[in-house]
Amino acid sequence: MSSFKVFLALLRRDVTVARKELPFFLVRTVMQPVLFIIVFGALLPRMGFVGAGYTATLLPGILAISLTMAAIQAVSLPMMQDFGWTKEIEDRLLAPVPTRVVAAEKIVAAVIQALIAAIVVLPIARLIMGPIPGFSLTHGGEIILIALLGATAFSSLGMWLGTAISPQQIGLMFSVIVAPMIFFGCAYYPWRGLDAVPVVKYLVLLNPLVYVAEGLRGVMTPTVPHMSLGVVTVALILLAAAGWMLGMRSFYRRAIG
Question: Which of 60, 69, 184, 235 is most buried per CB count within 10 Å?
Answer without folding.
Answer: 60
